[in-house]
Amino acid sequence: MGADTRRESFGSGALLQFMSTAVTVLSGFIFYLILVRIFNTAMVGTISLLNNVTGLFAIIFAMGLGYGLQHYISYFLGKQDYSRIKFLIRRFLQIAVVISASAFVFLWVAAPYISEWFFHDTTATILLRILGFNLSAFVMITLFNSMMLGLQNFIKSSMFMTYSGISTYLFALIIVQFQKDPMMSVIGWSLANVTAAAILGFSLLRESFRIHAAP
């Protein structure tokens, strides 16, 4: 019965994660579809490149920690070693903040060089520096979501990632309406992901208290 329940839980979790990813991809498609009606192709290309910079550096700074966290939290959950899970969550919430801050500082300092490399001039320096807020939040979301998956809270994980995916593009589109500037997209992404990271972080803290109280 236990094995069947775990397989059913894993199957439901995989389906929810797929749906979350599909919603995020669809939101991105709609975002760029609307964006090409607001900006010229050069501006849209700049926004797309900035989005890709976030994804690239988030992978680098997360350093694969998410996979390890998911594995070990699931392992200790199976052994019912709740104190160890609580320790991992608390410690890596702190580590995630440090890594995210490091990512922000790196992008702030390296912005002129990255701008020169990707855009062939330094005009995008300010955009990249503001993008640092989005990058640091995205790193936290990546690590926090891995911990949530390790706890096998697939529904919460899918809900948070769906919110993050939709709000990232929705906030950007709303803010762009006030001023037709690529910087508004970056600010919109940052607001959405900082909010999502905060919500997900507090949710993990609550889960750690509940796990500690488990028999």
Structure description:
It is a single chain. By secondary structure, this protein is an all-alpha fold. It contains 7 helices and no strands. It has helices spanning 2-38, 41-62, 65-78, 82-119, 125-150, 154-176, 182-213. Helix 2 (41-62) crosses helix 5, helix 3 (65-78) packs parallel to helix 5 and helix 4 (82-119) runs antiparallel to helix 7. The longest helix is centred in the middle third of the chain and has 38 residues, at 82-119. It is globular. The protein starts with a helix and ends with a helix.
Largest beta-sheet characterization: none
Which series of helices and strands comes N to C? HHHHHHH
Which value, in Å, is the CA radius of gyration? 19 Å
What percent strand? under 5%
Q: Percent helix among the residues?
A: over 70%
CA(first)-CA(last) distance: 21 Å
User: In terms of structural class, how would the helical and strand content be classed?
Assistant: mainly alpha
Count of alpha/pi helices: 7
Please tell me what the overall shape is: globular
Q: How many strand units?
A: 0
Runs in which pLDDT lies below 50 for 5 or more consecutive residues are 1-8
Task: Determine the mean pLDDT.
Answer: 84
Summarize the entry for a quick read:
This protein is mainly α and about 220 residues long.
What key phrases describe this protein's structure?
215 residues, single chain, mainly alpha, 7 helices, globular
